[in-house]
Amino acid sequence: TGDKSTEDDKDDRAAQSLLNKLIRSNLVKNTNQVEVLQKDPNSPLYSVRTFEELRLKPQLLQGVYSMGFNRPSKIQETALPMMLAEPPQNLIAQSQSGTGKTAAFVLAMLSHVDPSRKYPQCLCVSPTYELALQTGKVIEQMGQYYSEVKLVYAIRGNKLPRGTKLQEQIVIGTPGTMLDWCGKFKFFDPKKILVFVLDEADVMIDTQGHQDQSIRIQRMLPQSCQMLLFSATFEESVWNFAKRIVPDPNIIKLKREEETLDTIKQYYVLCNSREEKFKALCNIYGAITIAQAMIFCHTRKTAGWLAGELSREGHQVALLSGEMQVEQRAAVIERFREGKEKVLVTTNVCARGIDVEQVSVVINFDLPVDKDGNPDNETYLHRIGRTGRFGKRGLAINMVDSKMSMNILNKIQEHFNKKIERLDTDDLDEIEKIAS
Amino acid sequence: KKGGRIASIQDCHRKLFKRWTFDRIHEKYSSRHTTKKLKQELQKAATIPVSQISSNSGSQVKELFDKIDQFLSGQPVMLEGKSVSTSMHPQAQNFAFYKVAEKFVKQGEEEVASHFEAAFPIAMVASGIWEQHPQVGELILAHLHKKCPYAVPHYPAMKDGSTVEDYQRLLGYRVDSSGVEDQNSFLKKMSGMIRLYAAIIQQKWPFSSKQGPPPHALNHGWRWLAQMLNMEPVSDITSTLLFEFLEVCGNALMSQYRDQFWKLIRLLKEEYLPRYLQSTSHLK
Amino acid sequence: SAPSPAAGSSANGTSGSLFSLESSLTPEELNQFKSKTFSLGQIPLKPPPSNMLVV
Ligand SMILES: Nc1ncnc2c1ncn2[C@@H]1O[C@H](COP(=O)(O)OP(=O)(O)O)[C@@H](O)[C@H]1O
Q1: pTM
Q2: Cβ of B145 under 8 Å from any chain C Cβ?
Q3: ipTM exceeds 0.90, yes or no
């Protein structure tokens, strides 16, 4: 029954990260240079342009290609040779989500295991159960031609009988369960671990206890074990944590690609009521071809109402809002991704994470404002900004229904110093022009 | 001789395009507000159901087909609580034909481009509408060939006196004040339209009352592929289109034309591709 | 000049038929279909006749 504003839609990082994984099917393009800080600056720095150069096991190369990867991503070009080097090198790597970190460390783990030895050799800790499952899926895909390598999940609910000795070479799980499995229950011998991966360090430190548990696991591992840590962001706290987990690291960083409004055509529509806004929306649909659109509303109530009106007109509409569980949200987004629904109506909840390639049009049914009703420029940029990905243009249409919202629009215009044009939605020919 | 044939196909489409062209229809309207309003309503009634086709469910697709079919047949349909019909104006039906056809192709250009599976439900409905309303089929081809000359297939040549921008547009690139569309986006768009075409030629509307192949059937797939291989390859557009086309309807062509299809594929592999690689090696 | 119903493809977009009639093919086209391989640049644009699917 809550019709609170943005507050309840605020989301934790783990959920956001999971949503990102679930909806992403492509590399995020990044044109920045990788920064490298080597442990031993005198040793030569390798980077590879092809997967062949890595001399992977044929089964793994086949796995990589069957996932549709043609060449290493930017971060992989530098990270993979370091991770696959002999002797193994420790690595701390930071780059925004979607740049290929998971694929990189999965490949490293699969390359280092000896499948003929039937005990755990690689550990991978993730902040949540769901994230661990996602990484597990990547391991299964990449290892699809390497079936001797087995995988087990150290996650809550996966209860093993006492005295179990694990046969699987790779253990992936959350810090708490992982710690229990190697410390308390001794399901495997930590001294035999060759590779230790800590994924999503920035998300990890958000959860009470995770830091501590991860460090306790790390302390049980041998000196020779390769330590790898990945993070999407790098605040001071993440950095301090990383240094405690990874001794003598190589460090690589890839700056986030700046979002811009340069390739976006921005318009506003003047209306007097939400009914008029709805009418304008119908006209837009009648005039331009929209592969998929996202429509943002300020409140759940408006979002619910709008979704209802749209489906009455025969549109396939998905509704996403704050009170839904992550799994439910993921399911909704997945359906939207698959094109089962072509309109996604949402409150602020997924303004940040979602990156659906097909979304060519973003409609701000309500303009983004913060708690105090001031324009939320950052959210605006995030909703409609592009990083020049796929060179695709975007279209953003803002609905203005009062003096106050006109005021907000003007401020957004000033902030970005980019003109937002008026659009007359009563004239279909006019609307058609903006999309050609 | 072959050049002549393509020219004649194009010529034919150009004529068709003229015959149905929006401008001619538009001319017949006065600019009076009421007519403009009617036109807008017709446009919405024609295009919105096409944009709503999704892989969601078969029954939804059937409903949308019925809606489009009824509307094109002159029956009233409901739009935003009002009834709209092509009987409201003598030119309304032609206008609706034109807009529906245009919308199918745009759906290929926009939606299929970023979402390949969408080709199948859209093509299924298009094929059914084509069967019921052959003029729509002709217009689909006309729109398609205009937006994607490779669907003919044909690689347009630059004409004397035309500007680079005009030529880029002719090739299917979007050119606006910010410059020419990037290659990736262009290839995706073309892939979308070729996929839609490849899906149309092998799909029949499942509830069709008519026997036999779809209205624009696999013989056109044969012709497309044969013509493609008869022409000199052109950088990345050629490989992209061949791949998309074969992925969608290679299997259907194989079951239809058996050894003759294999001969095409063998030629592709043994002669065409080596030539292609040679002609594009300088790009690396 | 309406194409014969069996003509492989017709330019106006309305369907021809799935297969060509042998009688509608030129000698060159027939030779291409009879041969074990096609020659580049000379692949018939009309579909093969239905009795020539096995070479
Ligand atoms: N070298 C590559 N080529 C193409 N796609 C890739 C490559 N590496 C990863 N991907 C894909 O890109 C997406 C993001 O990769 P992922 O490893 O999950 O990134 P991150 O862990 O940095 O979020 C995934 O869909 C993945 O399958």
Answers
A1: 0.77
A2: no
A3: no
